[in-house]
Amino acid sequence: MSSVIDAPVDWIESIGHLRLPVKADQRLQELMDRNNEGLLAANEREELEVLAELGERLSLLRAEALQILGKRPE
After folding, report:
1. Are 65 and 12 in contact (CB under 8 A)?
2. Of residues 41 and 17, more confidently modeled
3. Long-range contacts of 14-22 (CB under 8 A, 24+ apart)
4. φ, ψ for residue 45 (rounded to 5)?
5. Beta carbons within 10 angstroms of residue 43's beta carbon
């Protein structure tokens, strides 16, 4: 079985533009700042972990899409 599939270029380009929504990104930054200050509650630590993991996964997807397209991150 081949690991190559056909996909429209515009679909791959749209993956290259994926980002956390603005509010989620702002919340992630707020939680990271509070974490650096040692002020996170247990539920906030869990929220930070979830948002950070989501951000990392989106970054990996963007990187793969950009690699397929032969582009550099903006």
Report:
1. yes
2. 41
3. 15/61, 15/62, 15/64, 15/65, 16/62, 16/65, 16/66, 16/69, 16/71, 17/62, 18/58, 18/61, 18/62, 19/58, 20/51, 20/54, 20/55, 20/58
4. -65, -40
5. 8
In tens, the pLDDT along 1-33 reads 557 668 788 888 899 889 999 999 999 999 999
Per-residue DSSP letter, 33: H
CB 32 within 8 A of CB 48: yes
Q: How many CB atoms lie within 10 A of CB 49?
A: 11
Q: Which of 57, 56, 60, 69 is nearest to 7 (CA)?
A: 69
What pTM, to 2 d.p., does this model score? 0.80
